[in-house]
Each structure stands twice: as C-alpha cells, then as structure tokens.
Design goal:
- This is GGDEF-domain containing protein.
- The structure is a single chain.
- By secondary structure, the chain is of the alpha/beta class.
- It contains 12 helices and 10 strands.
- It has helices spanning 4-12, 53-59, 62-84, 96-100, 104-114, 128-133, 135-148, 164-167, 179-183, 190-201, 214-222, 239-248; strands spanning 16-25, 31-42, 45-47, 90-94, 122-127, 151-157, 174-177, 205-208, 227-228, 237-238.
- The protein has an 8-stranded mixed β-barrel, surrounded by 4 helices.
- The chain binds guanosine-5'-monophosphate (G) (2 copies), manganese (II) ion and sodium ion.
- Sodium ion (NA) binds at residues 155-156, 176, 178, 209.
C-alpha cells in the first residue's frame, strides 16, 4: 500500500535503494556524471518511483525521503573517491515540495560537510515546473546553492512554462532536454534545436535525456549537444553494476 505510513516504514526498514544512470560525453563516450534514481524494494519486487513519489509529495514524507537520497549520494561520492580515486558528479532529483522546504539548503550543505565531499560533485535536478511555482523564492534558493558550489540542473526542460526572461535570472548550470523531444529526433527537431540554441546563448551545459538510438545520437552530436543519457548507452543500474561497468574496469 502506497500510504504515508508504508513509506515511513520503508524508510525505517531501509527498503529504498538508488540506481545510477550514467551520463556520457557524446563524442568520446566517456562517463562524465550520473543520475541517482530511487527504487523501493518491497517483498522482493522493485517499485518504481512513479508509483510512490506522488504520494510522498502529497503527504510531505518526500522531505525525509529526499534527504535520504541526498545522504546516500554523498556516501557514494565519498566511497568512489576512497575506493577508486574516482570523481564524477552525482545528480539527485529534488521534488517540488522538497525544493520549497526551508531545510533543503542547510541539509545539503551539512551533508556535504559531514561526508567531506566537494560540492561540485553533487548536482540538484529541479523540474522547470517547480522552479516556476515561485520564481522569486527559486532565485533566492538557487543563489544559495550556487554560492555553496553545488551544480544546478533544470530537469524536463521544455515541458513546463518557463518565462524566458526569468530563466536568464536563474543561476543554473545545466539544462536537461526532456526525453519527449529527444524521442522526436531526427524527424521533429524544432524544439530540441531551440533548447540547444537557448542553452548556448545562456552559456549552460545541455544534457539530452532519453537517447535510445544512433539516429538521435547523431543528430545531437551534429547539433553540438555534448552530454547525454539514455537506454542507448545504459539503463539506470544498481550501484555494484554501475561500479563494475564504469569504474573498476577502468
Ligand atoms: O527512474 P525512473 O525513470 O523510473 O523515474 C521515474 C520518475 O521518478 C522520474 O520523473 C524521476 O525524476 C523520478 N525520480 C526518480 N528518483 C527520484 C528521487 O530520488 N526523487 C524524486 N523526487 N524523484 C525521483
Ligand atoms: O524525470 P527524469 O528525467 O528524472 O526521469 C528519469 C527517468 O527516465 C528514469 O526513470 C529513467 O529510467 C528514465 N529513462 C532514462 N533513460 C531513458 C530512455 O532512454 N528512455 C526512456 N523511455 N526512459 C529513460
Ligand atoms: Mn532527472
Ligand atoms: Na528529466
């Protein structure tokens, strides 16, 4: 049952885990980062975040769950440095309500200090829609995160209703092209081209999501998109598999 009580128990009983999806340099095919994606392991089955994140948001339990995701990611960053001398940024998804909560910025800063990780190695992914809920507050909060050195990505870009004039004032470092627009490539490329041009004008790093085939990859390379993720390269993987495939083999 996806109720607040069952999510609370899941946290207490350590039933959540993170999968990691690599992000690649599209030209060199080197891993340049990864995205942490939560799963719920319940009675031997993996439950997708799509079926519990909405309930978690409605009930407010997304705050401790989101904090758990950030803490786990900090631990992994630290372990990769310790075990493999390996450092790539890990991106965590921050839900709308979690972004609005006053504890987010102090929590992230405190966790980065506790795990002794360099803040550039932690990136927050915030959907365009969450940012536009309250632009004035978003600017204040993003300034705090940026000043502290964390990476800031706008997730699912193109699906919300950004005011372009506000976008200019948001201290973001990365824009992620929503996979809906990547899946239209190469045939329908108007939106992807526009986002890429906008990102280049604003001097942002652009990540293409949901790359599934070589035609999409070719179009993105031809249009100067440098970073991407998607099933074409790798699905999200459990920690050990990510380490085996992308770290220990190096
Ligand atoms: O991993 P998957 O593709 O099944 O994710 C489905 C959705 O759940 C995506 O929109 C993704 O951003 C979201 N999601 C995955 N992990 C987290 C998380 O840790 N926190 C939040 N808020 N959303 C997540
Ligand atoms: O909303 P967000 O961008 O955080 O969503 C991440 C989700 O996208 C993850 O659940 C992941 O499983 C999914 N995903 C990652 N790569 C691909 C892909 O190439 N195709 C599809 N359909 N989904 C993908
Ligand atoms: Mn994301
Ligand atoms: Na996204």
């Amino acid at each position: 049952l996806r109720t607040e009580a069952s999510l609370h128990d899941a946290l207490k009983n350590n039933e959540f885990l993170l999968y990691f999806q690599p992000k690649f340099d599209l030209n060199t095919h080197k891993v340049v980062g990864c995205e942490a994606l939560i799963r719920w392991q319940k009675d031997g089955r993996l439950i997708s975040p799509m079926s519990f994140i909405p309930v978690a948001e409605e009930t407010g339990i997304i705050i401790p769950i989101g904090r758990w995701v950030i803490e786990q990611s900090c631990k992994v960053i630290r372990e990769w440095q310790r075990k493999y001398n390996y450092a790539i940024p890990i991106a965590v998804n921050v839900a709308s309500q979690q972004f609005a909560d006053a504890s987010l910025v102090p929590d992230i800063k405190q966790l980065a200090i506790r795990y002794q990780i360099s803040p550039e190695l932690l990136e927050v992914e915030i959907t365009e829609t969450s940012l536009m809920n309250d632009v004035e507050q978003a600017i204040i909060k993003l300034e705090q995160l940026k000043t502290a050195g964390f990476g800031i990505a706008v997730d699912d870009f193109g699906t919300g209703y950004s005011s372009l004039s506000y976008l200019r004032h948001l201290p973001i470092t990365t824009m992620k092209i929503d996979r809906a627009f990547v899946s239209d490539l190469p045939k329908d490329s108007a939106i992807a081209s526009t986002i890429l041009m906008l990102g280049q004008q604003l001097d942002l790093s652009i990540v293409a999501e949901g790359i599934e085939n070589d035609e999409q990859l070719q179009w993105l390379k031809d249009n100067n998109c440098v970073i991407g993720q998607g099933f074409f390269f790798s699905e999200p993987l459990p920690l050990e598999e990510f380490e085996q495939q992308f770290i220990s083999a190096k």
